[in-house]
Design brief:
Blueprint: E1 2-5, E2 17-20, E3 34-35, E4 62-63, E5 76-82, E6 91-96, E7 101-105, E8 115-116, E9 129-131, E10 140-142, E11 144-145, E12 152-154, E13 162-168, E14 171-175, E15 181-185, E16 189-192, H1 208-213, E17 269-271
Antiparallel strand pairs: 1-2, 3-4, 5-6, 5-8, 6-7, 9-16, 10-13, 10-16, 11-12, 13-14, 14-15, 15-17
């Protein structure tokens, strides 16, 4: 697995880079584990636009992923490593000993032919899923459940991993990729290892068209708009808008904290993430 650079025989290839992985399967996805999603293009369930500059993009099928890993005590063999258009990481197609197939988030280093298992008393092995109570301190983990008996929702992006720092009472102290330390119940499940495709952050698209394929439309600066369209718009010449940088709805930018003060999960935060420089 490495970063590939292209010979600039075309302007679009001059800065293009991609990840080369010979283990990545070229076969179509498992049909029974795919479904279609209606495109919303940045609109919510009421039809209102909540995210700007979204729309278009290539057709894609959603892969149904087993985030719960609730098939306990049954060994599964890794059949293939596959690409997922909805995520930055890759997926593993696993086949259980009883014949059932499922998609899981691919841990970095897990190869085709390896076996994984989930459930209590499982071995501390790459790709295995077990409760935080049974995972040793200092172990790298991902796909962590925020609440017991629910699917993993934390640490699922490419190359990410969390670390168990301590266990105290009913909770485990876990350092997240953002450097934040948070409490998780010891009954919550997590998967051993880090998430696959760690080179994802080093990829350069090389041209605007590849961004359009992903469903992102051209972004217009706020200062280039009219006052009716953006708070920073208008003015004579290249003016800065006459006010502090903000979003189209007037929300301040450049370091303004948007997290709600009374958010229920705030009481489980032991150490806040580090502030950005200049924020």
């Amino acid at each position: 697995m490495s970063i590939k650079k292209y010979k600039p025989i075309l302007p679009t290839l001059r800065f293009k880079t991609s990840v080369v992985n010979k283990d990545l399967s070229k076969a179509p996805p498992e049909k029974r584990l795919t479904t279609t999603l209606k495109k919303r293009a940045g609109h919510n369930n009421q039809g209102r636009q909540v995210v700007s500059y979204r729309g278009g993009g290539s057709k894609k099928h959603y892969r149904i992923i087993d985030f719960k890993r609730d098939k306990h005590g049954i060994t599964a063999r890794v059949a293939s490593l596959e690409y997922d258009p909805f995520r930055s990481c890759w997926l593993n197609l696993v086949v259980y000993s009883d014949g059932e197939k499922r998609y899981i988030i691919a841990p970095h280093g897990l190869k085709s032919g390896d076996t994984v298992i989930s459930g209590s008393q499982s071995s501390i092995k790459l790709g295995n899923s077990l409760p935080l109570r049974e995972i040793p301190l200092g172990t790298e983990i991902h796909n962590i459940q925020a609440l017991p008996n629910r699917g993993g929702t934390v640490v699922r992006s490419a190359g990410c991993s969390a670390q168990i720092l301590a266990k105290e009472g009913r909770y485990a102290h876990i350092r997240l990729p953002s450097s934040e330390v948070k409490l998780f119940l010891l009954e919550c499940f997590a998967t051993i290892g880090s998430v696959s495709n760690p080179e994802y952050s080093s990829i350069s698209s090389g041209k605007a068209g590849r961004t359009r394929w992903l469903g992102r439309r051209p972004h217009t600066r706020g200062v280039a708009k009219n006052p009716v369209d953006h708070p920073m718009g208008g003015g004579e010449g290249k003016s800065s808008g006459g006010r502090h940088p903000c979003s189209a709805t007037g929300l301040p930018a450049k370091g303004y904290r948007t997290r709600k003060k009374n958010k229920p999960g705030s009481k489980f935060i032991v150490k806040r993430r580090k502030k950005r420089k200049g924020g």
